[in-house]
Predict the structure.
Amino acid sequence: MRFFKSLGFKITVYFILVGIIPFFLIAGLVYFKISVDIRGMLERHMDALVLQVGNTVDQTISNAYWYIGALADNPVIKSKDKSFKEKLEEIQKVQDFYRLFEDITLLDSKGVVLASTAYNYRGELRFKQWFQEAKSGKTFISNVYVVTAPFRLVFTVASPILGKGGSVEGVIAGQVNIDVIRNIADSVKIGKTGRILIIDGSGNYLVYRLGNFLFEKMYPLQGRKALLDAPKGFVEYRNREGVDRVCVFRSLEGYGEYKGLGWKIGLVQDKKEAFAILAKTSEYLVFALIFGMCVILVLLAVFIYSLLVPIRTLLRETERVAQGDLSERQLEISDDEIGDLTESFKKMTTSLRGSREKILQTSKYLKSVISNMADSLVVLDRKEAVNMVNPAFLNLLSYKEEDIIGRPFSSFVLEEESFSAQGLFKRLLKEGSIYNLEINFITKNNQHISVSLNLSVLRDTLGKLVCIIAIARDMRQINELFSKEKEARIKLQVFSEGLEKKVNERTQELLTSQEATLNILDDLEKSRAELEQSNAELRKLDKLKSDFVSTVSHELRTPLSISKEGVSLILDGVLGQVNVEQTRVLSIARDNIDRLARIIDGLLDISKIEAGKIELKKRLVDIVAVARQILSSFELITKEKGIELKLETTQPDVTVYVDPDRIVQILTNLVGNAVKFTDKGYIEIAIRPKDEIVECCISDTGIGIAEENLPKVFGKFEQFGRVSGPGAKGTGLGLAITKAFVEMHKGRIWVESKFGEGTKFIFTLPRKPIKAMFRDFVSDNIKDAIKRHNKLTLITVSILDFEKIKEQFKPEELSSVLIDMEQVLRTKVHSSKDFVLKDTGEIAVILVDCEKTDAINVKERLQQSLDELLFSKNIHEKIKLRLGSATYPDEADNEEGLIQKAEN
């Protein structure tokens, strides 16, 4: 078990958590990103081919549609004076010229075949669907159907022959062999296994060269459902032979007047071949992982060895010091923090050695004083048991020291006075000291001795009881003197003036004895002062120990997290049912763990700030919206306390260029303090934008801060206005952290308060014109792209003649249009990092890791979507848009050039 608590094991676990696991996570993310990019590239490439072939197919069918329609309008065909032979010759010319139709058939209005170019059809075809549709007066394209003798797949294009009055006088129909479409599809190949397929609306194969499946249902069913249900997409499936394949498909939507037949066209390829480059990338990535892990393990072994050897040496020295050996040793001191720790340890040992010598000298002196005291001294512990006595006490009661130590003090008091002695200690603990108390001790020989008892309590710097000191003076001699003085008073009437002189002499002796008692008390007070000085030395040593412990304070975070998780598991009933009392105790424990975690977080935050290790992640933020969010998070607790929350602002939104997380932390700290120290009234956040700054004021009607404490408000570990009770205490770091975050934003913060009337915390943030903030925003994104070795594309959407447009629309109407435009961008551009709504009628979007060619496609897609938006609002004739884009570093190498290129 000790191994698992060792620093080497913890460092190893830390390296695994911080080094190896993130390494694998990053590798996984890289692989995921590469696989997504490859998959996207494959989908785009395949989709482009499918679109190309689909357009050709649609064009071909549209041509057949147009040719038949043109033939139906041919004067020769429509003429009643022309013979069938002449009409057949005219039809034959069309067939021979276009070479698209297998047969063109001419029918009269009753469906009787009048002429056929290739197959010499005879009889009536009036029941054919294409004849019925054409007779109704429109050109019609039939679905694919089977024709025997010989077996083939064809579809028919039929058009009505209209007379002068618009009546249908006949129908002309052309049959197109599906091989025409198949030849177009076979012209496209990808690799060894990529082929084009075409299916009809029922999922039947029309074109597919990888098997004899023509006019059969597509396999598998889930692949067919995906193709039939969606207008376009990408599917993966397994074919009859168990081979995994991928397919990119889209609908054939027609061309011109031809609106399509519900066909789908797709490009199919073996998945293994399609993702071959991804498999190769995986091999390289695995090799890189293995190599990187080996390097990390070697570095870990070297680091642990170099770290643990001096620590173990220092540990042996601390064990030696703990055993009391404070002799000076030569320790090897390195140039790092461990060397500083070793140097501090040597200084601490030297200081301890000197302090121990002083303590021993003081102890000898005190022992000598106590041993030679004429009065009896008793030291009692917290349980009122005897802990130490001096020889005078032993002589007074005729006991040996071993017979007294550990016995209760009441055992030496007369039995009828023991009950009052119990109340005596309660009074002593309350008042701190009791003087000249008359009490009777019982000796070992059962004799009663009257003593005058002085009691005092000794406490440490924290007010905790250390011991009770009792000093007893034997009153037998004094009582005897008082007795003789009483006798002298009786004889005063009898004796002469000489007796009065004797009485005065005896009285003087009594005063001398009392003066001696006071001298003893002075000596004890000096001894007590020396003890307090020793305690101060010990406190100094305790500070050195605290500094030593603070170097490893981060070790508390992991045990705290584990403890909290364990307590949470028990509370959640994972380890068994918990009763009400156990739940209460465990909840208290969890709250204390959370409070300790917050203390540690505060300490670490302030240390990171002082070390300059916190980096701001700025972006354009509406601080009014942030303030509204913060107030909402405190609504529950303020409602319980009856406190009103207010938000005051002169503008509905105020944009600043800040780190949103730090601003949330600033406002949360200030509002949280206000809630903590306000019992009634209100808490208000006021946002006041000015020329070059934004002023934020958090005011409350709480208890306020005393004037003398105002200069120390933002100091570390400072707490003011605290009241006793749960929830009122913190770490004293919140305002110091808040001040640091404000100053990191080039702002300033101050406090105004009157004790008993409330407090105002005011801080400012820099505010630039919207274009300047936008320029800073683009500059920061370029820096981030450089750091990550990425490209970056800026796309701008501008409303032309914006000043004139503002005169034509109401402000709320124009604002609504801009918001809708931004919403379209957020919907269409899923990879955007941020959006900026500018006051010049422009919306800008940042695309991270976007190539120039991809940006052009995105811009075209956005243009189409925005045009549709304006058309739907019926303002497309009033508002005209211009879309621009620029890619870093291909088209510009700085923020000014990038913005100018995108806007022009």
Observations:
- The longest strand covers residues 448-459.
- Residues 834 and 846 are 6 Å apart (CA to CA).
